[in-house]
Specification:
Layout (H helix, E strand, L loop, with lengths): L1 H5 L3 E4 L3 H9 L8 E5 L7 H12 L4 E5 L28 H8 L3 H11 L7
Parallel strand pairs: 1-2, 2-3
């Protein structure tokens, strides 16, 4: 989902060495509507870092932090992102969604879900 938004915005993945260097140096493009930081939770003290960016630079460009379910751990302590953190959980596709939106028959959708999972990209 984040990569679909990235076309007109700025996408950085902390797992990619070149992107990580840009993140650490804080050298991303500020002239876009949205900067997407993927897998940022792998950065040490990422919550304090992103809070500082948000507090100093404001809300332009908007920041989207994405990652695995490990983002849930950010609620358990450390720096508070109150007023700055708005979680969104992306659930896997369901058989009903696949049938209604993609037109696949339920039995084929179920078989494919069991083989590749329900997230849109591998499906």
């Amino acid at each position: 989902m984040a990569k679909q938004l990235a076309a007109a915005n700025y996408y950085l993945n902390y797992d990619a060495t070149a992107d990580r260097k840009i993140i650490i140096a804080e050298e991303w493009d500020r002239n876009v509507e949205l900067v997407i930081f993927d897998e940022l939770h792998k950065m040490r003290n990422w919550k304090s870092w992103i809070k500082g960016i948000y507090d100093i630079e404001g809300v332009n460009p908007a920041l989207l932090i994405t990652g695995s379910a490990r983002l849930d751990t950010c609620k358990k302590g450390g720096e508070s992102l109150a007023g700055r953190f708005f979680p969104f959980r992306l659930h896997p596709l369901t058989v009903k969604e696949i049938h209604n939106k993609l037109g696949e028959q339920p039995e084929h959708a179920l078989e494919k879900l069991l083989n590749v999972g329900g997230f849109p990209e591998p499906y």
